Amino acid sequence: MNQTAQHFPLLARGCGSWTGTYTHITPEGDVLDRHQVDTHSSFPLEADADFVLDIRNTWSDGRETRITLKADHRNNRLEWQDRLDGWMEEVDDRTVYLNFTYADDPSIRVCEMIQISEDGQSRARTWHWFKDDKLFKITLTNETRSTL
Q: pTM for the full model?
């Protein structure tokens, strides 16, 4: 096991591949968008980052995006590189909390909570999106382990 992973046992337990659905809603509950998400995370032994997250978003009309996010172990948490400015840390043995802004638009801040099931086979994520400190979107994610 990577030494950084030893500092983050919940994230290490959550490493691997997941599949699920992102549902973006307004603060009033209206659906803005819904699409499939597939993620793979790892604490690589040999890499330019301590933690790597690969994300593939797929829409029913065939559109697809792919994103790779990297983080380093600093200040007793994982701090994002490049695209995001922020961090993630474990709150307890089932919960991870993330707080970040986008490097290309720091007026957007996201607060995310990840809740992993006891058996490690499912997880739920909730994102609160703020623009200039005003809530404008919420993302709900329900995921299960996959073998991507």
A: 0.92
Helix (H) or strand (E) holding 13: helix 9-13
In angstroms, rounded to a whole number, what is the distance separating the alpha carbons of residues 136 and 78? 26
Whichever domain contains 139, its CATH number is 2.40.128.20
Rounded distance, CA 123 to CA 129, Å? 20
Single-letter residue type at 120: G
Query: How many domains is the chain partitioned into structurally?
Result: 1
Residue 142 has which token pair?
Answer: 């329900």
Whole domain around residue 126: which residue ranges? 3-145
The model's pLDDT over 12-23, given as tens digits with 9 standing for 90+, comes to 999 999 999 999
End-to-end C-alpha distance for the chain, whole angstroms: 21
**One-letter amino acid of 40:** H
Amino acid at 91: V
Q: Which residues pair with 55 in a beta bridge?
A: 39, 67
